[in-house]
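Order emerges. For instance:

***
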Amino acid sequence: MADPRDPRPLTGEPLSLDLLNTRWRAGGEHDLLTDLDGYEVWLSSAGLADRCPADAAGLAAVRVARDALESVLAGTGETGVLNAVLGHGRVRRELSAAGPLETVETDAPEWLAAWLAADDYLDLLRQGEHRIKQCSGPTCVLRFFDTSQNGRRRWCSMAACGNRAKAARHYEKITTGG
């Protein structure tokens, strides 16, 4: 559940996309990760506040992960930086008396949130790269994972960008007589 202090227009997406959505446009450019307070809000909204300290090192690490994810998704970068983020952690699997266990381990605590976001992106790719989408709103930069049955979702939010597109089409129709 999103932290009530979270000002972002879209929350609750899978962790990797939620990290990307810490930058948005709504009456100007916004970036939740400009300071430790914003990072703390993101950690809280992402459900990581109890696992990851809201410190400068962690903030720097998630910024690296966010930039790497953005670069890979935009097709402008190679995978090296994202692989470097993934290189900071691993999943240790073992069998306990209670059954299989998976434990995420990182080489330093500040890399945990960044690693989890990068690992989440790999999971989304396994589920279907075609379902990772950018909103079709002409000025929107938000991304979402399309879980619709037919995979045809176009908007980050029907109430926001989708409604604006419908209103623009309607206005175009009435002004052109179409």
Notes: Residues 37 and 51 are 16 Å apart (CA to CA). Residues 15-132 form one domain. The beta strands are 23-25, 29-31, 89-96, 99-106, 132-134, 143-145.
